[in-house]
Amino acid sequence: MNAPQLPQGLGAARYIGQRVLRKEDPRLLTGRGQFVDDISLPGMLHCAFARSPIARGNIVSIDTSAAKDMPGVHAVYTQADLAHFNAQMLSFFLLPPEVEITPLAGSRVCYVGEPLALVVADSRALAEDAASLIEVEYEELDPVVTLADARAGPPIHPGTSDNVSAEMGDEELDDDLAATLNGAAHLVMHKVVHQRISQAPMECRGVVATRDGNEELTLWITCQSPHMIARWVSLSLGLPQTAIRVIAKDVGGSFGLKNHPWKEEVSVILAALLFGRPLKWIEDRYEALTTSNQCREAEMTLQAAFDAEGHLLASHGDYACNNGANPQGPDNNIAVHMFLWAAYKMPAYAFLTRGYYTNTMGLAAYRGPWALESLIRETLLDKAARKIGIDPVEIRRRNLVTLKDQPSVSSMGIPREDITPAECMEKLLQHFDLAAFRKEQVAARAEGRYLGFGLATYVEPTGSAGSMPVMTGELAQIRIEPTGKVTATMSTHSQGHGTATTMAQIIADRLGVAYEDVTVFEGDSARGGFSPGAAGSRQGVIGGGAAISAADLLAAKVKTIAAHLLNASAETITINGGMVHVAGAPEMSRKLGEIAAIAYGEPDRLPPGCESGLEVQHRYQPPPMTFTSAAHACVVEVDAETGFVKILRWISSEDCGTVINPAVVEGQISGGLAQAIGMVLLEEMPFDARGNPLAATFKDYLLPAISDIPEFEFVHANTPSQALGGMRGVGEGGAIIGPPTLVNAIADALSPFGELPDTLALPLTPTKLLSVIEGRDLTAHSAPAPVVVSADVPASEPAPAAAAPAGEVRVEGAWDMVLKTPMGPQGMVVTFAIVGSAVSGRFDSPEGTQEFSGGTLEEGRVRFDLKVEKPMKITLKYDLQFDGDSVSGKCKMGMFGSAKVSGTRKV
Amino acid sequence: MSEHRVNLTINGRRHAATVEARMSLGDYLRDEAGYTGVHLGCEHGVCGACTVIVDDRAVRSCLILAVQADGAEVTTAEGLADSDGTLHPVQQVMREEHALQCGFCTPGIVMTLAALTGGQDKADEATLMNSLSGHICRCTGYQGIRRAARRLAAEPGT
Ligand code: FES
Ligand code: FES
User: Fold this and answer.
1) Is the peptide bond before A763 cis (omega within 30 degrees of 0)?
2) Can you name the CATH fold of A466-620?
3) What is the pLDDT of residue B123?
4) For domain A813-905, which architecture applies?
5) What is the number of the ligand 1 atom nearest to the C-alpha of B47?
6) Residue pLDDT, tens place only, A659-671
7) How far is B58 from chain A (nearest CA, A)?
8) What mean pLDDT is predicted for residues A307-324?
9) How crowded is residue B142: how many other Cβ atoms within 10 Å of its Cβ?
């Protein structure tokens, strides 16, 4: 294991970089954790839901009388009871959905398992008994289940014209790009179909809600940040945020699922407000698998053109995801395209990306939500290498951005300053003798054993802050008590991340006190301040920076006070082992606690103007984004008789900058890799044609066990980032780089049988691999599968193009418009002033007002540019067609491609 | 729903209760006896989080009924460490090997390892690994759990 290197001036590293034992563990190992289901309040009652057995239909009637009559049942609520709260469902970015989503189903159901009534009873068992007595009459409709259904089928949500929930990019391929693709020496086309996944944290969702008096609400809830929940619930219910206290001391994993409350949690909160007694709902595993938000289901086609030597020339991607009916964000996953080629020298890239609604469970986030970019790129590169006849290492060497190529900007506008995927790969190859492996592989094949080597490289955006309202900096508040103990309240939150450990390491290090004397408190919205918590691999980077800066401020204050008290100069003071020392005067040493006692209790002894007490807070604002890089390699053996894959070796070479605690970093990577192995080999949430989820237990939804996961080897590269302390995020990487590493190894192992199918559909079950093995003649070693070469963009729907003139149209005046941005639909009022064919006007939105001029009007078609500064500097090019009282068209958003605009005349 | 009288010992303390026939031992231990260190991750016998020791054997408490534990001696994760806070050897090794993250699967894994390494005939490494394949951990990728089990198999019996 490499010794961590620290950036200049970062302490003596007594704790940073060490495998310090975790503070959380004694509590968790002895059964003393505090998870939601461990909370019991006086008078608390239990909840269960009645759920829809059909995927799409109208509710004709709900009869709750038998359930209400059951002894032990206190109340049964339907949406009619909850409606008056007018609770607003919100996305992670705190935006309302564009289709109607209510806590309980109102007049229609749109997925199997949608909750439509909530029973309050003495026990969970009784509540479930009663829920089964609720009679619902439906008018059933044919469901839209798959992406193909969504494209062809009727819109599932009233008031929409199709099932496209979000769309960006260009439908027509730019002429230059088409020419480059068609004219290239090699054009490789690759399609990946990613199955639906269940995040499946071991602790299911749950909430205990209690109304305290008239206006306060206390929640114990599974989450990724109590502060985020408090803000979400306060906006949803229209209550002050401070009136809502959210406690989540221990959360049993989340991985993106528990970012914010969804239908069930909101229903329980509203029921608790209505009923006036504490209510508890603890999701069981059947509910968790079938009716918790799921993730990932998507398909993508990627084309990449190479010159004769295998250098990248141009690429085009077409992506679609199945968002389900009520997704937490109606996403088109623009991040896939932003980061697809960010680590590579890719001159030109264009894309089309769409999200669709279907009558399935809605999607939510999962570790590296954009991970398909790495899976499809890295598997395409290996396919290309085989086609061009070069090694997988060589194709990456020829195309990866190295430190020498930086600073530079990717073709999608991503600035690259210190990414190191190429360096990680070279470092990895020092630990893996590829030439020796190739010999072993040949020898094994002669014995009928199929070994394969898989390699993948990537970069990952982490520690994002400042571009979206919820992605804030992180707060550290640190106090030295007169006891000499140090306590900190942080905005971070752990669902297993160990932030109480890593933040304490940093604070102890920077303050010069013992790790044992530092306690970090988080997990309660009444402490610390806002942050979105564990979202986007940010806590080590930003929380770490906050801990450093707050500790440094506090150390400076200690030194100022000690210098004054001891009649020394501040530069001669050091703090070490909880003692304050004066250089050259050991007899003057004082305990930190003594200084603290004076700071709080005897302000007269402090230097003039010095605030009493020894407590500081700092909110650290990092650079907008910090990149983590990695290269991974694995070796597999595929059993040609059974199709089973055995992973023999796996090496991670990851550059996550300064490592605070190697055990925590390796734990994050390992957990992500296990999830990656699950996605490639085991996990799948299938639906039947009627939209029924088919994996309802852990006997159908296969999670990796210890026997499926190899030992991982770690090579840490440590290029300090530009964030304070030099950390880079490491929470998601394993789940992003793991899948292509493993798929590439399997494809390599099976290369004697030809290529994997042109469409790579996960999971790669033994049955699927056997069909590759058995579908080929073993003697036909040298015939690779034909590669589909086509520069045509797959068929796309007609755009609401601004083409047809629409006679006399009155554009002048105010219009309500919606722009479908990557973060969700954004509403605004646009007011136009027309002079001849010149157009000027004004945009009004919650973000502010902005004026524009210099536009043109031509037969109902209005075109103009709008320069915006936030969240980034970009020129929006609007092209709108007005027709009567409606308007539609698109807005070209620089590197983000195009977004749809629609609207109506304001009345 | 019929009700039954049960007497059992949990972590060395005697408990007497009246339970519904359908109540699982796991629910009883958590909700009635207050041992919330027993975690329910699936309630259908796959995840292993609910594992406790019943009469010296590791048992999935979601798969047996409270009435079946009448007269039994039950140990949960709360009952392993010394009262002064000194961790049980299994807990100590798991801590040193960073065998947990969120800690939800942890009590079950601790109990399986404690049951298999605590008695006279201590299980070997292969047996421990086989038994651990009945525990799901979604966080750690099993690296620390495997290291801990190896160490426990190698260390002299307790
Ligand atoms: S809860 Fe008993 S095995 Fe999962
Ligand atoms: S530590 Fe979270 S499930 Fe094992």
Assistant:
1) yes
2) Aldehyde Oxidoreductase; domain 4 (3.30.365)
3) 92
4) Beta Barrel (2.40)
5) 4
6) 999 999 999 999 9
7) 16
8) 98
9) 29
- Residues B52 and B74 sit within 8 Å (Cβ to Cβ): yes
- The reported pLDDT for the residue numbered A1 is 37
Please tell me whether the interface predicted TM-score (ipTM) of this complex is above 0.95.
yes
Q: Do domains A36-141+204-251+258-291 and A813-905 have the same CATH topology?
A: no
Cβ(A496) – ligand 2 distance below 6 Å? yes
CATH of the domain at B106: 1.10.150.120
Pairwise CA distance, residues A140 & A718, whole Å: 58
The answer to whether A554 and A480 have CB atoms below 8 angstroms apart is yes
Cβ distance A174 to A352 under 8 Å? no
Neighbours of A696 (CB within 10 A): 18
Residue A130 above 50 pLDDT? yes
Q: Which domain holds residue B144?
A: 89-154
**pLDDT tens digit string along A597-628?**
999 999 999 999 999 999 999 999 999 999 99
Out of B42, B76, B131, mutate this one to test ligand 1's pocket (max ligand atoms within 8 Å of CB): namely: B42
8 Å CB contact between A747 and A31: no
Question: Do B126 and B150 lie in a common domain?
Answer: yes
Alpha carbon distance A502, A483 (integer Å): 23
What are the chain A neighbours of B41 within 8 Å (beta carbons)? 202-204, 252, 285
- Write down the CATH number for the domain with range A36-141+204-251+258-291: 3.90.1170.50
> What is d(CA A60, CA A497) in angstroms, rounded to the nearest whole number?
47
Give the per-residue pLDDT at A754: 84
CA distances from B2 to A72, A131, B71 (A): 16, 21, 19
Is B70 domain-assigned? Answer: yes
Beta carbons within 8 Å of A389's beta carbon, 6+ residues apart? none
